[in-house]
Amino acid sequence: MKKQKILALLIIFTAVALSVFAEKLTVVYTGDTYSSLYPCSSCPSYVGGGIARRASVIKNLRKSLSNLLVVDAGNFTAGGVLDTESINANIDKKRTLYYINAISAIGYDAMGIGEAEFNFGVDFLKRTIRSKGLPLISCNVSLKGVSPYIIKEFSGFKVGVVGITSASVLRKNSLSFRNYKKALKDLLSDIEDKVDFIILLSSMPDGVNEDIARSFNRISFIISCGASLSTYQKKKEVNGVVILKPSYQAKSLNILELEIENKHIKKYFLKKESLSLGVKEDPAVKKVFPKCFSSKDCSHKDSLVSQCENPATLRARCIYVEAKELNIKVITDRNCPFCVTTFTEEYIKKLFAGAHFEMIDYRSKEAQSLIKKYRINSLPVFIIPKTIKEDSSFSRISGFLIDEGDCFLTNKSLSGIFLFINRERLPRSIDIFIDIYDPNVFDNFKTIVDFCQHNRVKLNTHFIYPQSKGNSLKKSAAIEEIKRMLAIKYLYPEKFASYLLKRFEDIKSSWWVNIMDELGIDYRKVKEAIDSGEIDKVINDDYDFSRTLGIATGGFVMLVNNRYIFRVYKIENEVLEDIIKYD
Question: How many domains does the chain contain in total?
């Protein structure tokens, strides 16, 4: 009996002892904020944002958590092409300084140095460091007031936070800097015995971050504000190192939660904290920056126009006046359940509170007269009176308008296209345009192939070609892949769909030769057709067709009956049936 009691006590004390080693750390990380102070005025209310809301959430986390680390990867300075709120250099400098005041009030533990920090030159950065005392870190640049790292001690473990800055911007600003690999190697060997794990704040490009992960797996997490493709993942794991990307302009708050046992990371979880308009703003932080820099910083109120009075000063305030009426005609297909104009309407309404929309069916006599007068060939189109020029928000929409003398028409970038009114109707036909790297490409293609086979619908397959900007290696690989696909379509039309289905199962694999062998496709014939230039005309015709329809970006696009066009993300049979029957 005594033995049983002793054993039970041992189990209890062992469980208690083990629980002592289980700790939690919450890391709040931001980056690419570009001194964004205000909520997104043109976004839905659930998007929100704004530094006062961010401050409120972080303050509440500090109250409820014993182990909290708050870091910024860099690019916190205003200005440059990636700053959507940029006005001019002088105003952007002011906004940066106000933003830094707000950041100081929040109390960040460490901040990286990104390319944006040099937007106003090295002297401005040096003055900011000297006067504001930000906790800036970078191990490959020597600037007074910048540390290579910080060590943050918590109960039971220590965290090293290291910074590294893109060499290209340092070189451009004539600053002396160290090779990033040597700087990291020396630094990590110096601190690895002093800390239990390491977080790197990086402004390096994605490829370099992945190289760092492969070379230094002593780093646990890389939080990056470096240049990336728009499709780059918010989380990627390389060689056991997790690479994370923050939300642009901190419209939401990224949170990394760690479970630590015996000074080692046992598990991690990623969360996003919404900064919707329903989140209370921190009143203390809200006092340290102006109410507005321009009218677009003011909150939206229905039927009222906002104006920023005394902009970019602490005396700034938003005032509201009754909106002038703006009567807009919209030529559309009123009977079509898939032909929506909501996005464009909402965008215009956000800018021009007095906007009213009159929907006109394209078959009506009035619409036909307007179509003829303005040589309209696709729908929808918004016809806007010239009085729009008198509004202060005109400059924000002028790039999307075509001047027709007595009115403006929206261009296709703003209104989109769902109907080509002059194209010949080809019943029971679907043309699809495929981005071969789209994550839903296999599911969508299989659904549409099965649908067309079972419903006797003619299917024509085309491709969306990569643009000149972006990763040149990926572009080259995509073109070679499309050439092979079109060569198979040209030589083996009956096997084309089967090849695509198998290929789309794993488009990144290099096993396409095996798929050809499996389907009885002669690889030598395919290669000869490509090498001889025989396929060049096929690819040029395919490319020209997609450009004629204005299809230039990725995804999955359908042209139904040669007239109705839709970009889709997830295709469903029921929707296909409704669309094919409608026209």
Answer: 4
Question: In the structure encoding, which two tokens stand for residue 216, read together?
Answer: 């230094």
C-alpha span between 128 and 142 (Å, rounded): 15
Task: List residues bridging with 558 in a β-sheet.
Answer: 432, 566
More confident call, 573 vs 88 = 88
> What tens digit of pLDDT does each residue of 29-68 get?
999 999 999 997 656 655 678 999 999 999 999 999 999 9
Tens-digit pLDDT profile for residues 525-576 = 999 999 998 899 999 999 999 989 988 776 789 999 999 999 888 888 788 8
Q: Is residue 4 part of a domain?
A: no
**Over 60: is that where the pLDDT of 247 sits?**
yes
DSSP letter string, 391-451: STTGGGTGGGEEE-SSEEEE-HHHH--SEETTSPP-SSEEEEEE-TT-TTHHHHHHHHHHH
**Residue in 250, 340, 288 with CA at minimum distance from that of residue 53:** 250
Q: Is residue 123 part of a domain?
A: yes
* In a shared domain, residues 146 and 59: yes
Distance CA 223, CA 31 (A): 8
Task: Check whether residue 403 and residue 441 sit in a common domain.
Answer: no
CA distance 26 to 538: 55
Residue carrying structure tokens 């060590």:
151
Domain that includes residue 414, residue range: 324-420
- Answer whether residue 332 is part of any domain: yes
pTM assigned to the model = 0.66
Q: Which of 201, 75, 217 is nearest to 148 (CA)?
A: 201
